[in-house]
Design goal:
Two copies of one chain form a homodimer.
Chain A: H1 4-12, E1 20-24, H2 29-40, E2 44-51, H3 56-73, E3 76-81, H4 84-91, H5 95-114, E4 118-120, H6 125-138, E5 151-152, E6 155-156, H7 164-173, H8 188-205, H9 209-238, E7 239-242, E8 245-249, H10 250-253, H11 259-267, H12 275-281, E9 289-291, E10 295-300, E11 303-308, E12 317-319, E13 330-335, E14 347-351, E15 359-363, E16 369-370, E17 379-380, H13 381-387, H14 392-396, E18 399-403, E19 406-410, E20 414-415, E21 428-433
Helix pairs in contact in A: 2-7, 4-5, 6-8
Amino acid sequence: MLSKFQNHISKNLSFLKGKKLLLAVSGGVDSMVLVHLLHQLQFDISVAHCNFNLRGDESNGDEGFVKSFCKKSGIGFFVINFETKEYADLHKLSIQVSARQLRYNWFNELLEKEGFDFLLTAHHLDDSIETFLINFTRGTGLDGLTGIPQQNDKIVRPLLIFTREEIENYAKENQIGWREDSSNASDKYLRNKLRHKVIPVLKELNPGFSGSFLQTLENLQQSESMVDDASRIVYRKVVEDIDNQKKINLSELMVLPNYQAYLYQWLKPFGFTAWNDIYDLVEAQSGKQVFSEHYRLLKDRNTLILTEKKEIDKEVYAVYEEAENSKIPLKISVCDKGDITFGNKDCIFADKDTLKFPLEFRKWEEGDYFYPYGITGKKKLSKYFKDEKFSLIEKENTWLLCSENQVVWVVGKRADRRFSVNEKTQTIIKIELK
Amino acid sequence: MLSKFQNHISKNLSFLKGKKLLLAVSGGVDSMVLVHLLHQLQFDISVAHCNFNLRGDESNGDEGFVKSFCKKSGIGFFVINFETKEYADLHKLSIQVSARQLRYNWFNELLEKEGFDFLLTAHHLDDSIETFLINFTRGTGLDGLTGIPQQNDKIVRPLLIFTREEIENYAKENQIGWREDSSNASDKYLRNKLRHKVIPVLKELNPGFSGSFLQTLENLQQSESMVDDASRIVYRKVVEDIDNQKKINLSELMVLPNYQAYLYQWLKPFGFTAWNDIYDLVEAQSGKQVFSEHYRLLKDRNTLILTEKKEIDKEVYAVYEEAENSKIPLKISVCDKGDITFGNKDCIFADKDTLKFPLEFRKWEEGDYFYPYGITGKKKLSKYFKDEKFSLIEKENTWLLCSENQVVWVVGKRADRRFSVNEKTQTIIKIELK
């Protein structure tokens, strides 16, 4: 008769059959049960063991234990030794985070190099309960309360619906040996407190707690899928995705009484955390902005514009007539009168004698003005932007081509008439945006 | 300087100003702080105190304490004595549930009789944390993790964002007296375990736990509002609400990979709990059904039909020519040839001599047949229903009018030709559906 473990794996994880599987095995009870089960069910498995060298002989004992088990059972065995402490010091990381980075970097390498299809880990239901409680203790949202996923991408966790107790009982009943894997636990202090102080009380109050927790997770996962649906539906209506910008139409969004929920949902993946500032931004005047580590959210009239955070380029690049400059997206050539075309904003024609090379290629600055081709008089750039209803982002992205600091071209937008071709022009210069 | 309590109330609960408020006051620290605060801020308050007579002198001591405080402060005071134990025995309820029923029944009576606008209770943040953990321990969904609402309908909880500790400190600093309200706690055993064993560990692991819990609640409430949005949007697309029936179009619903989440969301309010049965029903054959206490969900071709659970009426009602019968929705009268109309399904005309009064009015049964007006031969009712594509619900709701157990009328649908008016008819009977 098959155990409930074998049943579960045969029924729900049949997609692993015939695949090349790498098992992360510390030597603890969870991973030893996992390797036994899959070996028994004749899955195509190999074992990967990390020796973090954090507990001297004990660490080496774990390694030897897993190695000899694999040898005896004819299971492929990969092992690596990490100088975890040194790595942590070097990168100024905690031991936990270091061990995690080292481990997963190596697993990914192995997956790729050896052509494994999946990495299997022995996470179980109590890990999920602990993760739930850790997130809850720290403060979280729905996404922090939906448990460890049974699969994300190439990582699969076949034991996730079983409790630690069930796994230990199975190991005892089937005489599966293991070693206590004290170094394996991340967030050790937190987890131990929850494991020994909190979870036993919950199980005392509800002896069926593990089962009802599984149901709770399922309910919350369903709710999360509906949150995703709502998020997607409303996003399609009020957000315009163009040119690495996302433009959130506030007049449409704010019809919803819970518009903040949508902003939270959309902006969280971009690393924003200052939610009150963002909610204030909605009512703020144009030009106000809020930053995350890599992104910026800008209020611009009745929109919020999300873009990557970029330093404004303050450099002035010299543009020579002859040489192509890979930093500057302009192409300069001499041409005939017959080559002149109109209506292409990415190209201007200038009278060479009016230009003084090298020209300067730089960002717009407050105070710049020009003599727009086609109208009389001069105009401040700021006035021009306003008349053309440029967004703040568009203004920031505007480059000027100047000659002796006089604007020749608001690049891609408008030429200056002082440099334009006329009947006296002897040499025509064509300047194109590449 | 105003305290943070007064600030909070002035800022966020200004809608209570000028309203007639009833405060539920046990005499414990929470409710005594609440009454002090609102009295100080000159709200229009009265106090309601329940004496549950569960702790003898102690209960009477509480009553006396609250009463004399109100007298001294010039606050209106209502009191009631309950024989809680007797009520619990009589109704076979727990003491907790009994106390709750008695209390809220009385509060509602007072609100109505005395014209109060709101009932205020002194629930605080720790109550919310405990409620979260109780639901979590028992197993729940998102709705069980969004905390106690600050307001639902006429009940308002002004202290909900403050911790028990903050409230106790305020009472001490302001020399507010109180009595330990041991009977006030519902779910006492559970709450005490969580209060003394679990929550202190969470606060040890995160000293800012109360604040992050408030943020968690807000995040979860926002998610819940998005779940509601998704639910409503999809409901409008796939559910037809007609005649006390909700018809869920499965072919449209099941395009969604997470259709179960929607079924759960829509059906939960109708008391369903057997979710796996419901998810199986989706794939089951027509006629299968799942019941909650008051509702039934029926698979009918590619729909699920939700209706109230009704016993099928097996009675046969006698229909007399003369008397109006209030139980029977038919009106019978004699009429002239000139009165005959066509095309009204709610009305037939019959030859009186073919009928034998009293007629019988009853539900359709397996085996019934009739001679449909307008075609030759006879037809089984079951065949007729099938041809007309009647749903199971429509079949169940179909009444027959019979004469000597021969079908005269499939009521509201089709007449039988054996009883129809012809040139030999002497008296015409008009039978109308009221």
